[in-house]
Design goal:
The complex is a heterodimer of chains A (about 280) and B (about 200). With about 280 residues, chain A is an alpha+beta fold. Chain A is about 45% helix and about 20% strand. Chain A has 3 domains: about 55 residues, Arc Repressor Mutant, subunit A; about 60 residues; about 100 residues. In chain A, strand 2 and strand 3 form a beta hairpin. The two termini of chain A are about 65 Å apart. Chain B folds into 2 domains: about 110 residues, Rna Polymerase Sigma Factor, Chain: A, CATH 1.10.1740; about 50 residues, Orthogonal Bundle (Arc Repressor Mutant, subunit A), CATH 1.10.10.10. Helices cover about 70% and strands about 0% of the residues of chain B. The longest helix of chain B is centred in the first third of the chain and has 24 residues. The radius of gyration of chain B is 17 Å and the shape is globular. The chains are: A alpha+beta (about 280), B mainly alpha (about 200).
Chain lengths: ~280, ~200
Amino acid sequence: MSDHTMEHDRLRESTALYVLEALDELERAEFERHLATCADCAEEVRSLRTVAGALPLSVPQVDPPFALRSRILAAAGAQAKKSPTVVAMPSAPSSSSRLSRAGWLSAAALLVLSAGLGVYSWSLGQQIVGLRERLTDVIAQLDRSQEETAVAVRTASATQTRLTVLLAPDMRQVDLEGQPAAPRASGRAFWSRSRGLVFTASNLPPLPRGRTYQLWMVSADAPVSAGVLSPDQSGGVAETFSTPTDVPAPVAIALTIEPEGGLPAPTGDKYLVGLTH
Amino acid sequence: MWVLCAVLSATDSVALDHGALERMVTGDHDALGELYDRHGRTVYSLALRVLRDQGDAEDIVQEVFSQVWRQAGKYDRGRGSVIAWLLTLTRSRAIDRLRGRKSRPEPIGDESLLSDLAAGGPSADEQLTWAGHATRIRTALDGISTLQRAAIELAFFEGLTHAEIAERLELPLGTVKTRIRQGLLTLRDRLAGAH
């Protein structure tokens, strides 16, 4: 590769920065040296200048204050004449020569004005009350939507965890059958040693007061608790549990009913049982 | 409404501006007033976008039109449109004020950022009317990524170097470089394609 090509490859990315004047002094000097010898970069710089030139038009258009025009013209006038005496100054009214009648008139005008201001400030006060109410509404709305967002985030996060288990390469599925205590119930467990356990069930009988369902991973040694769960009103449940990665390989998964809070080992009736294969 | 007026007057405006500068050389104040009436709003809006302060923006507009009044005689009409010159001066002065810098030497040379713009543009594609630009550049800006747009605007309207932009956006230097170039290239293609 020639020196020029290597230099070109390195500096090509700088065309836009050069056009936007976003290079520092050294970089700019280096790029300009390259530009003088590189037709490709010169062409790109030329075309990008047109684009940058249009950027001022993207800004919101705002009318300047009316008085600015006359200030600009007055300043130009002052520059042209080079003489301070020529600058037009508004003639100040001499206060001493205006007395009596004019004074009374302005006092009357002031009265009218202050009455007007009173009405005006009352109406401003009303507007503020209205605005404050609207602000309260808007803040309440904002709080509601933040809560909704939090719920959505939690749901999404639970779904994500569930998916992680279901898509795990070491995922094993276990179908659970209803036992005599709950003949119509059925369930399904998805277990991955590396990622945890997802459990779903339907038609579980409602729990008596002070009782909970507890899920067990039954191995040759002893049952290990996966966690406790409560079905919804229709007897359905879908829960994700994290399980210890060193848990003994289960020969079965079982659901029992236990005192609230769960126990270290099962004591109650079995409601669902499924053998791993 | 302003856009519509600009469309109608765009072609004549270039000639009118050149005429106004020539009259300003002879000390004709009305010519300055006319130039201000045509472009004061565009100039003020740019200064306001950069400085975000009404008083500062007014100062810049006054400085720019003052400079144009002083240097009308030095302006070479071969260089292109007067509005491009006005906007180059405005951006440069506004950014200097924003960043607390002393004003740079007053640019009126070919190197000015906007020198290829509008009537001075060499190719037919660039013979865009001023207002056509306005609508199109807004649409085109909506079409690039937020990051590209942010980086470009930080450079153009706030006068940051690419290193400062990288710091502001918490991105690697190389990423900023690429984003800015890709953004401008996309804008260029969109502006050309929308013709």
